[in-house]
Amino acid sequence: MEKSIFRFLIFILIIQCGFSQDSLCVYRFEGDILLKSPQSTKPISKGDIVTKEYILNLFPKSQITAIDKEGNIFKRDQEGLCDFNTLLLSKFEGKTSSLTTKYFKFIWDELLNRENTETKIAGVFRGDALMSTPEDQSFITGKTIEFNWKESDKGVYYFYLQNLKTNELFQTETENSFITFDTKNSFFSNDTEYKWTVTTEEFPNLKNIPYNFFSIVDSKQFSELKKEHKSLIKDLKKLGVSETEINSVLCDTYKLCAF
């Protein structure tokens, strides 16, 4: 009798789990995986939403990691068909830190709100700015630094970079959407903050356009900054995330960028 009650309670918990979750979001995947719905079949992509109407088809040596809005992680690497409820039963059982949960909640919001990421700062919509990377308030280490920006149909860009310690200003005109510097250049030094911007205006008002600020730090300082995220790094490694991907996470999410 007690065993029957116990089994019934487990069954109820599984059912509740299924009803409490109506969607998962694809965080990462490896190999070939198809996402099937009653309307179509397509290769899976990061950011895809998986709901009860979908079935996954995992080919040999493929795996998927999905997340929910609460920061829970679901990982499956078994070949074959996998419906939504089966994926829910593949919850990652490893212990993760609160920082990791917070990170995956952030990623959920970011992946589901890619069209609404603009923020208003000092009266300027940063979404209207061309600058991409380095992002505002980034910490940079490495032998080179690359600046990237969005392309414009005007095709000519005016790039400005200022050393805030010396007030030295570098400016150039280019038709590319990126520019790379060697950090051994005398313009750059550790423990120094910089600001940069790019515009399609030939003579902009430099006091009235948005900038991205960043600091260059040495490897020792960079290692100290990474320690703040050591629990997340450890958890991502347990999930099988590569060192390269982890570096991208630190740069894209926490603005700790090693070049």
Report the β-strand fraction as a percent range. 25-35%
What value does the average pLDDT take? Answer: 87
Low-pLDDT regions: 8-20, 115-127
CATH class of the domain at 120-222: Mainly Beta
Q: What is the count of helical runs?
A: 6
Q: Multimeric state of these chains?
A: single chain
Order of helices and strands: HEEEEEEEEHHEEEEEEEEEEHHHE
Strand tally: 19
**What is the CATH third-level topology name of the domain at 120-222?**
Immunoglobulin-like
Quick summary of this structure?
The protein is of the alpha+beta class. The protein contains six helices and 19 strands.
Overview of this structure, please?
- The chain is α+β, with helices and mostly antiparallel strands.
- Among the domains are: 20-96, no CATH class; 120-222, Immunoglobulins (Immunoglobulin-like), CATH 2.60.40.
- It has helices at residues 2-20, 84-88, 98-112, 219-226, 230-238, 243-254; strands spanning 24-30, 33-36, 41-43, 49-50, 55-58, 63-67, 73-76, 80-83, 120-121, 124-125, 131-133, 138-141, 144-149, 157-163, 169-174, 178-182, 192-199, 212-216, 256-258.
- It starts with a helix and ends with a strand.
- Residues 8-20 and 115-127 have low confidence and may be disordered.
